[in-house]
Specification:
homohexamer; 244 residues; alpha/beta; Rossmann fold; four-stranded parallel β-sheet; 10 strands; globular; Hydantoin racemase (chains A, B, C, D, E, F); hydantoin racemase activity (chains A, B, C, D, E, F); Asp/Glu/hydantoin_racemase (chains A, B, C, D, E, F); amino-acid racemase activity (chains A, B, C, D, E, F); EC 5.1.99.5 (chains A, B, C, D, E, F)
Chain lengths: 244, 244, 244, 244, 244, 244
């Protein structure tokens, strides 16, 4: 089975880290490829960044369909372009926020999300609502860390995030923690050990969920909302996106 | 006051029609400019089209901020890129679905949306939820008309849409109708007369709402969710979108 | 266009203030008349006061229909009698809480209401729910000020309200503020300047929304919930309210 | 124990019927008095009628407090003035829609309301939401009968209502029926026998609920929302409503 | 009328206390029997305990149907086995959480539940949702007291619970208190006096609600969800539960 | 990894079928054991049956903890005893309704459940709400087939269920189908082929989800709701359930 993990930002160190975490949890028969798009923002910290990461994601999905990819993971906690991607994929396309929240609701009766900047909290709340997970989400907590701080050697991010997770357990009365950024994927086990409670990383969860779906032959329904888009003209620099 | 009406698709005949309807309702002191982006899909009928209309919309907003525009209308019923646009605008940015639904909830205690293709109904439902308008929305009805059929001379669209509106009043027990596509803007008064009930066109409503907000000096709050995005690098063909 | 602004309490100084604020934002062609009813409470601070303000409001609406009024604003933050008023009006009838909350949801992704007495907070919450705005309302904060304290020269109300608004931004993480009493209408710009964030005054918003609706020929739907009441006998001192 | 049953309309035949039904279910020690207010509409079939029934209801509550009444029932399915009444009563004040819906949710896992005119259905839906009962309410069905048709000798109302109840069981898949008008109170047992399923009459339920609350010494909480209104001036013909 | 009060745990001192409180509020013609099942946990403080209390409850209901019982109360705040019990009873079966929450929503516009252990708070929240009462429930507060501590002579429970109730009024802004354990039933009046606000005990409320329903001839609807279970084989030690 | 699949009813042919389906989708390293409890109902078609299946389920979970089981699946679409089971398990415990609904929400933007008897539809709706999946569930459809009819050779069940699935796609506008009974697990692929849309079987999904969770070292959080129950006495035939 071929799974393509798309890090929607263009920061290669983060893509590498995500790829390693994905490979570490993949089943023996699964081939993981982790990519960054050819275009777009270096990190995603706003609706603007998120919207502009989508052309790059769709470019990778369209290529993946040519390459025989069986399933996709969109590895940014805003799950950018998820529904658009599903329209052009046959197999499953899974967002890491989606996978993490679903899994968290089975692990505990409530969770807190610990994320980077406060301005992105609303995006997480919107996703929790969209996926039906709002009832399990006690809080979305920001650490006031820019995304790329997670990539900076010598950064204090690890300590700050662990501390936020610990406080979430107590102050939010949450029973487990969801890591709210793909860049935190390598911290998952360490934080779980430190705080003594389950910590959920969306990258691992999404990889396993994609594997599960492919193995029981579930992909994306082509009836209704996520059917293939109608063919039509595209203008300007987006002309290559025209389907037929 | 300068208002910019952005038709997110690249079909100029629709842009012209939207511009005329906007100008017809604008106050004496309002200057309307209606534009299509330099890039993107000829019509918007899927999540894919919608996502790929956003770079063009943002391009127009960024230009508008240089041109001294006071407020913006995004004239596609999916309100694509609305929150991203707000992050880079100072004044109000209003989606036509947003404006129409808010206005409809004051005109009647319930409404039905009448739109083009069935596959876009979910998009309208998502917006109704996002804006808090789900409780007023009795139904979203599709006419099985592609968007550009509304632009084709000799099309039967007018009759089909009117009939769908009439049925919505009876079958959905709705008290008014929201037109679910910017391309229907010119049909509003005619259908209202034909069915004997209020019909709400998002283009007109959004223009008046933008005027109202500018005149009482309300724009987009720059605290939190819609604050200006952080400066960062953008790669590939999206490099021009880097803010500073 | 003739707009009638009804202050549902009988305190003339408040009616005058409301009338001035309404006139200041009205378009050139709009004639504003601001009135207090002939009967009812000096201020509205309970369900009891609110219920007993309605006969006076309806009296003014019935008169307005004779006078050729095009649209109405009910200028009390509880929006008393709104649906009853709509049944007897042809044009739009807009409550100031309704207008302010709708407008606030476009200005920011969340708002706090700052109002007078704690006992009225529930009324604001009920309205937020009724209008679909609960999802945007982070908090309703009381200042422990009776309504008429806002009319008392030398009162400390201005300072107390400004302080409550400032705290709402920080503690509720709200992106804009809705003033929860018609008597605060004149404080709007001053508080906005003081706190550096948008402050929304329902009186201005309702005037502009009424103008907008009249100008695009939207009134109150006469199908269903807000159709004209059936003729019938009324007894006792309410006999004059019988319609025919 | 003294219970006062207020029929908010001024039609004495309906008041008499309501009083008889109330007396028939009251416990041995309960004294029932059933009254119509001195003012207001002959029947309640709109928001307008409902709003204008409230001064009469409050007049009866204020009198009841002087007369040593222990609890009140407001016997109109719109529960007009319920919260205002609670502010001026010490004991419980119960609306018949409230009592019927609560009881219905214990009798079956879902119910349908069968009421008079279609234009009042929204009022029932609003109450279902307000009381938390929307999740149990499968439908609100109108019979297209004016309220006073229930009082007309020789009317076909009985047959029409029974038929509507029967259809509600099948078409709405409801497990019991709530009668949506105080004027139907005498039909309850007969319809239950005819359709073979529980039928809930709000007048009986409200009487029993009021008795229950008084007997365990529960009244209306005077903290917060339903505390006694502040003293203030009332103008015009409403001057007698000023409290002190 | 015969009412059977089932304390789902096997602690006889608690059953006696519950029986006394039930008898104290029962009407003259009501015969109360209070029982503990022949099997099950000594106290109920988890989903596990709750699930394992249900066979004993159903055993008592099945026996009650033979004994001519008219109505049942399940006297544990988790309302264990309520729907299963309804399937095998003809008359009403009422849970004490259900009765208390319904009654509380009439007494005040919001309530707090004060219960024993923190781990049971979620159970109360689930019930509040299931009964439609979540909108009235401001908080569920735990006292960190095991259930049987309420039975221990010399315990400090009374003081701790009273204090929690007092704080709930202030910190949760609740207008009344619901006692979240059947073992608190005897404290109700004392706490109400101490805190000066209504305190609602589910045992009393459920007894009165059962009496009310029986007296107006309302039982459990046998259409749909709570119809009698189909006959079938039961294996092992549960063989006696097979119905026919 | 050892997974235990518990069929909560005592019908061995169904247990065998479930075991085969589970084994067919399990990963190479997974050992599946499928069991029926030693006690309980032959099929589960009511709240009563469901409640009485729980002692048997818990018995199997307690044994499984001794046997070194890594994860559990409860293979009845009512997910009986799920939370109680989680309290006594260290690893994940997954209900088949839970697994199927979560997976369905990723496969399509909406689903219909196709189940056996109408009286169990409410149970499915409750679960959809509890898991946050109500927003994706367009309908729960019953086939009017008793559960054991699925086990009867020569039954017409296969045809009836396929037809119900086909109608669900069209009439409910659902994008995929969830099979609402563990006894349908072997029909999944056949129906998917017949109707040309994804069909989701909870047994397969739950097995894959359990594998996924174990492989990323996620179990049941022991903080809060699903912590191990407190030790206490159990009486009567349930005495063996006392934990220590």
């Amino acid at each position: 089975m071929k799974l393509k993990i798309i890090n929607p930002n263009t920061t290669q160190s983060m893509t590498d880290k995500i790829g390693q975490c994905a490979a570490a949890v993949a089943a023996p028969g699964t081939r993981i490829s982790a990519v960054s798009p050819r275009m777009g923002p270096a990190s995603i910290e706003s609706h603007y960044d998120e919207a502009l990461s989508v052309p790059g994601i769709l470019d990778e999905i369209l290529a993946g369909e040519q390459e025989g990819v069986d399933g996709y993971v969109i590895a940014c906690f805003g799950d950018p372009g998820l529904y658009a991607a599903r329209e052009v994929a046959r197999g499953p396309v899974i967002g890491i926020a989606e996978a993490a929240m679903h899994m968290a609701s089975v692990v505990g009766s409530s969770f807190s999300v610990v994320t980077t900047l406060a301005r992105t909290c609303n995006i997480a709340w919107h996703l929790a609502e969209r996926y039906g997970m709002k009832r399990f989400c006690n809080n979305v907590r920001a650490c006031d860390l820019p995304v790329l701080e997670l990539e900076r050697p010598g950064s204090d991010a690890r300590r700050i995030i662990t501390e936020a997770c610990r406080r979430a357990l107590v102050e939010d009365r949450s029973e487990c923690i969801v890591l709210g950024c793909a860049g935190m994927t390598d911290l998952c086990d360490e934080i779980a050990d430190a705080i003594g409670a389950p910590v959920i990383d969306g990258v691992s969860c999404a990889v396993k969920l994609a594997e599960a779906m492919v193995s029981v032959r579930l992909g994306t329904s082509k009836r209704g909302d996520w059917a293939r888009p109608l063919p039509k003209a595209y203008a300007g620099m987006l002309a290559p996106y025209a389907l037929n």
